[in-house]
Write a structure and sequence with these properties.
The protein is α/β, with parallel strands linked by helices and 262 residues long. It has helices spanning 7-25, 40-45, 64-67, 70-83, 91-105, 118-136, 238-249, and strands at 37-38, 50-53, 87-89, 140-152, 161-163, 166-168, 172-173, 188-200, 205-215, 217-220, 228-230. Strand 5 and strand 6 (166-168) form a beta hairpin. 27% of the residues are buried.
Length: 262
């Protein structure tokens, strides 16, 4: 016998469908999500509309093989900011002013030790800030440091690594496709993250967070004893890079699939 679709029945079915859809689209909680810092009060008082992405790190310089990928990552960041209604001043405007100030105050980066002279860094930033605010009505500086961490691929039978909100499989490198049965899955592998810091024109920090990108190590399939080696192609997976960017900017720019605690 055919059942009539009453309004109540239709409403109930619709409610169940919405609930199932909501459940299926809820991001999986990831306990490694970075504990961001956000100065909501300052942002509410002076909303950020115009920014520039610095070509230098806020902290110590990135590894050389990460630094090579920095312009590409900054390009993705710039596009993401523009898609979210922010005006992005060309990076060359910052770089030209930075280089001019370095000639006056000296380079704050010690290439030997990798340490940063924060007094010199601050003097350069004040000089750059004064000129850029005047020329571009700038609201904030964004620093995008590429940092490297050490994590194991020991998460369960699938051997997944979790860090800074992402979950990644171990990449393989070499002629084979298998992993030695004696491989030590608790061995630490190098992975990369995007560290974002946003400062207003008073050089006060508005926001800081981090999002995972990709492993920079791969399992060497040629090794009989099992080991990690540096990947030949680093930070080339656009999908994974964009996930890391969205994680790193949340909640300055809300990411609907953010896997942290509400």
């Amino acid at each position: 016998m055919r059942l009539l679709q009453t309004p109540v029945r239709l409403a109930t079915c619709a409610a169940i469908a919405v609930l199932l859809l909501a459940c299926s689209s809820t991001p999986t909680y990831n306990p490694t999500t970075f504990p961001y810092e956000l100065d909501a009060e300052r942002l509410a008082a002076a909303p950020v509309k115009t920014v520039v992405i610095a070509h230098v790190n806020l902290g110590t310089p990135s590894r050389n093989y990460l630094e090579d990928a920095a312009p590409r990552i900054d390009g993705y960041v710039s596009t993401y900011l523009k898609e979210n209604d922010l005006k992005v001043v060309p990076q060359r405007e910052f770089e030209q002013r930075w280089n001019t100030a370095v000639r006056v105050y000296g380079n704050p980066m010690d290439p030997t030790s990798g340490k940063v002279n924060m007094k010199t860094f601050s003097l350069i930033m004040q000089n750059v800030r004064d000129d850029m605010v005047k020329a571009h009505n700038l609201d904030a500086f964004i620093f995008t440091d590429l940092v490297e961490l050490q994590v194991p691929f020991s998460g369960g039978m699938k051997h997944l690594a979790r860090w800074d909100g992402v979950t990644r499989k171990p990449p393989l490198q070499g002629p084979g496709s298998g992993v030695s049965t004696d491989f030590d899955w608790n061995m630490l592998a190098a992975v990369a993250s995007l560290q974002v810091s946003i400062y207003d024109t008073e050089l006060k920090r508005l926001f800081a967070s981090r999002g995972g990108l990709e492993p920079t190590d791969a399992i060497d399939t040629r090794s009989s004893e099992g080991r990690y080696i540096r990947r030949r192609n680093i930070l080339e997976n656009k999908e994974q890079i964009m996930e890391g960017i969205q994680l790193a900017f949340h909640p300055f720019i809300a990411f609907k699939d953010w896997p942290g605690q509400p």
